[in-house]
Design goal:
heterodimer, A: mainly beta, four-stranded antiparallel sheet, about 0% helix, B: about 950 residues, mainly alpha, 42 helices, about 45% helix, elongated, WD repeat domain-containing protein 83 (chain A), WD40_PAC1 (chain A), cytoplasm (chain A), repeat (chain A)
Chain lengths: ~325, ~950
Amino acid sequence: MSFPQPKPEVPQLPQNLLRTIDCQQGAVRAVRFNADGNYLLSCGSDKSLKLWSVSRGTLLKTYSGHGYEVLDADGSYDNSQLCSCSSDKTVILWDVATGQVTRKLRGHAGKVNCVQFNEEATVILSGSIDGTVRCWDTRSRKFDPIQILDEAQDGVSSLKVSEHELLTGSVDGRVRRYDLRMGQLHVDFINSPITCVCFSADGQCTLTSSLDSTVRLLDKSTGEMLGEYTGHKMKGYKLDCCLSSKDTHVLSCSEDGHVYCWDLVEGSLMLKLPVGKAVVQSLSFHPSETRLLTAMEGRSGIGFWLREMVVCLKCDVPLLPWLKYGIN
Amino acid sequence: MASDSDSDGDFVTFGTPLEPLEEDEPLRKPVPLHEQTVKDEKGRYQRFHGAFTGGFSAGYFNTVGTKEGWTPATFVSSRQQKAGRQNARPEDFMDEEDLGDHGIAPRQITTTADFASGRKDVIRDKARAITSLSAPIPGDTVLEDLVAPARSSMGVELLRKMGWKDGQGVGPRVKRRLCKQRADSGTRAFVSASPPNGLSGSQDEEDGEFVPENVTFAPKDVTPIDFTPKVDLHGLGYRGLNPLAALRGGPGAGHINLFTMDSDRSNSLFGEDRKGQRRRGGVAGQGFGVGAMEDDDEDIYHRDIMSNYDTVLGGEEPGDGLYGWTAPQQYNRKKKDHSKDAAYLGKILEGFTLASDKLETKTIFPPPNLPRDFRPVHYFRPVVDLSSVSPMVAQALQTSRGHMAQEEPSKGGRHQLDSAQRRELLGEATLQGPSSVFDLLKVEDRERLSGLRRPSSDTSSGPRQPTPGRPEQLCSGCRDSPAAARASAQKALSSRFTPHAEQQQQEALSVWSGPTAQAQTGQTFKPFERTPHKQARYDLYIDQLKQGDRDALELSLDPTMTEWERGRERDEFVRAALLYKPSSSSLSCRFTRGKQDDGVEADTVEVTRDQENDVDDKQAAVKMKMFGKLTRDTFEWHPDNLLCKRFNVPDPYPGSGFVGMPKVKRDKFSVFNFLTVSESPTASASPAPQGVKPSEPGKRSRWDVSGQAGNKERKEKDPVSEFLSVARIEASGSGPEASTTDGPTTDPTVEPDTEQKDEEEEEEESRPSMDLFKAIFASSSDEKSSSSSEGESEEEEEEKEEGVRSKAGTGPQISNQLNVNTTQPAPPVSTTPSQNPDVVFKMPSGPAAAPPPRDQEMEEEEFGPRLPPPSSTLTERRPSPTPSAKDDKHKKKCKEKHKAKKHGKHKKDKKQKKKNKRHKHKGKQKKSSRKEESSDSSSEGSDGNSQEDGEEGGGVSTEELLRRLKGIRGKNLQ
């Protein structure tokens, strides 16, 4: 067991706002760290995908080519490729450096909610509201998917890939785990539309957030519930949840403008990060450090803001000024 | 040499440089042909074809014509001046360009041929080409070529006098990087002789890391290429008998080197580095035979190997010292660095580098070690039936092997049961027909066969006695005496009706007359539904069978048909009866009948048996938070082979032909399936609840929305959603009463909304599946096209007003807020563009302002959890302690896109009343437009449509679909 830390530590939670980026993309549908956490991708509703440097907070590249708002994006393990999906029913594979569209993958019958590379960026997996997950081959020149997973009975809202497993969450209230190695499909019934699914870093657990305002930690192999995290509000929107990089905490967006952070083992609410007043749309945790990325709408109405928080080691330090008007 | 050194200065650029290409810039139109002119510095057309460079200078669009055609403007006869024009020089016919710097006769002091290096010789060549035209043989300067003086340029002579050797590198000393290009090939010439010290040192440095910083190196040596004239009459590359090599023996070069170097040749002359080194006496050469005394003839015929040649053009490193000559070389190329690529990429996209650290290597667990004495051979032990072996043998077998196959069926697991044992377990009736082919044989034949096969035992463990059905079978022909004659005649007539078929007929009879078949009535499959008459006959046949009628087939067939047709139909019926025979009750309750039966166009959706029949259990389990076994289903799932390959995973089912889930009937509740389902009676029976926005005050998910919509009967039907909604109301405490806390401004907005909702519910019943069509076919394009519809002009006006007001009112507020944030650039600037109505409406895809309303429309058509709306104002929510609830309510209000736009920008509480009024108005307007639209669902309606569907569709889609599904499922289970 990795998670109960032997010695009491300062809770490794991102608490201070480091930087706010106005990405001027309209609504930010998703923010994602890349594989090593040095860059971040923001998916805008203005059809653009932007690549930012985390350390400098500067815009590196804008990728435009989608016909409608970009809903999700992912970077390959070596940063050489990006993929993004959009409401225009397409999945696009980008060349990072030139910003050109390497491949535009059509085939979904509805907007594409989520997209992921597999570990070696040889397959793009995309889940759509048409209830299918399509596996696109990035190696071949064929434009047909390798396989279509149409087991979901409703739209696929979230999707994650591990080494040989594929985790999908669907609006039909089921979490499906396709085990390629075993050739098995495990279906866990949650009974509420799934908004986000995650693997834990050790690969033994899955985290699902659903529209009944609950985040559940399930044992991957048996499907038993290991933890249940409530308190936040997730009733109508497709919001993200995630685990911290060391699997110590569970984080979830909330519709009340906070990011909720629970202790993974105890299930107690550790932190309620006030991000703003609006709905926190998306969040992403740094793959190795204690950094959090949140996206929510901005206060000027047009700009949308990315927030990145870094750990504050002295936790009794008064909160930063932006919090003062963040909470009512 | 001197002119070479000042290299860059004397390039002349013509024209203006191209502008650097902008990425996003659209492609320009190509310039039409007649505008593609080049002019010189005086504005004249630049000639590409001068009179002395192969063309004319008339220059009308780079042609030889003029504007007037071929007619010269003024013609002056030169007849009189013929005598005076005797000695016209070429320069008389030249233009300035020809006499200019780059013309053919420059009027400047230039280096003569002696001092000129390569570039200037071009001019001279031109001149020679011209003079060659007047040569004895036109086009060829034969004489000059023959008597070309052997001379080298003055620079070379000077260098030689300074001690320069041919091939030595010339130029300033260079740093390491350049010197690196001194590749292996450059030094190769010297390798066989004595390699100079410096060279070997440099090679070391190439490999190694030791590169001193401030050390420069002489430029690279150039291997002079030996242009030895070909003097013999052999074919190209053929090296005939070499009298010089005759005494030393040994074959010539293995490979004909067209461009041998001096050093190479000397090597071959001395025969030092030949691999064979076998000296033979006598004359040898290519194509020269072997003498009688010589034993081997391997080298007579020259064999060339393709590896001696370069197969790739330009694949060499630039500094290989050959300068394009394709002499065979062994290049030991260095592998390219990946880091170099990354650096390259990093230059392109500033601030971005590829990941340097690779993927973590996977831990691969080795297969378990096999025991030392394991032999990977599997042999099948013969299955021994205890009954067939004497007890002594059985005992011996048991002790020796430790087990007896088939000894105890109950121990062996279900896979080792045979059909008879399974039948017993399942409680089915024994088949009436013969259980094995053996039963059909005569007794003595059987015994003979079994005697033959005794050692390997027989497979049928069932009772060997003749079954009760068998004697009937054997004498069935003579039992029915009236039909017997006919049957025998038919047998002769129809070749299709074989004895085997007759046996099948008996089988069918036994199957259908059994008790299980009697139990299930009315459920029989209709295989001939396409042709009702035939189906009727088939039904009759089945009925007869059920009554145990023996000649059911003959009775049911149509006597008016021809014999052939009847024989065919007989055959078909028997087969169908066997194929669709009633399954036994214990089994049939386990299987769901396939809805998509062959040949029948089923308009129902298949039901997955595993997932559907215990949903209630699962829901109960979820209720009790008993996740685990109760909520988990595991299916066999076949990934595509290629997918496995891409994931670096072995195919779990190698050789399985299909992908996906094999054991479960497909039911894909995609939107397409519901295009046909919408006609199903259950869908129309249960009124559509919808119109409930996902942005209901309580913020319910769309799944249990119906409970709030006042759809009572559905509530009763669906305990789960009831439970969930109740639970949610309890949990969140945000029922309808939550709205009361929101203050006076938002309250009135709720009521009109619900009214409107109800109205839309009624409409929804009449037209249930429109939202589906919208969800599928409404693309962004047609939504865009709808932006130029009805109420926009007034919206625009209102927007303008509001823009002005909000500029005045909210400007300071915003800036106040934003001042706190340090990174925010100039808030007023960011707000103004969106308030400009022109921008908003002309550019629907504008970055800031336009997308939000579209988002909302789109969102509400879609299924599942929505994305948060891009803009919900903060100031509107400012007074309320529970911002989100208000926000939701607010969202509900701003269904119209113009409002959504405004919400993003203007944060006025006093706006709200106005908006509400307008909202009501809109609702009515919408209703009317909907009615119009039903008559003409054309482009005009698309706007109102998308709005309305935005309102109802969000709920309808999933909720409605779910209910339909349930209805279907219920129907199926009946």
